[in-house]
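Priority: low. Protein: UPF0114 protein V6590_09450. Input follows.
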Amino acid sequence: MAEKPSLESRFENGLFASRWLMAPMYLGLVISLAMLTVVFVKELVYYASKTLIMTADQAILAILTLIDLSLAANLLLIVLFSGYENFVSKLDLGDARDRPDWMGKVDFSGLKMKLIASIVAISGIHLLKVFMEVGKQAGDAVPTDKLFWLVVIHLTFVLSGVLLALMDLLASKTDKH
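Result:
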């Protein structure tokens, strides 16, 4: 006769099953990726239609905008795949030949590093776009205090990334308990 599961066992099974509460959040990220794709296509169509009348600086700004959007989409995919595999369930894709090599290998520490690296890259591109606007036209000048705070925020992201990397390095050097 089978033994009845204990209260503790049922509680632990329920606790473990609660990870599935994250699934709607990952579905929300998929919807966010679709929204970002629509914005990317809209921007691409807008800039492509102006290609023949753009200056070199305008073309660079347009390209930086598209790169910025694609980096944000990459960030979403990294969080989506890694987060799902680390916290909910492994993706059973069979013998998928085009499965990225990093899938299933990015742990929480790696996810943090990819996240902060993407944020720094996105912030850097945004800052570069603002710098390219400096001195263009007197009426469109970027306020000095706004520029100052953009640089401070970017440097804060960079410093955060360096500190996270340092913490991960130190953690990897210590004995596991």
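The mean pLDDT is 86. Helices lie at 7-17, 23-49, 56-87, 108-133, 144-173.
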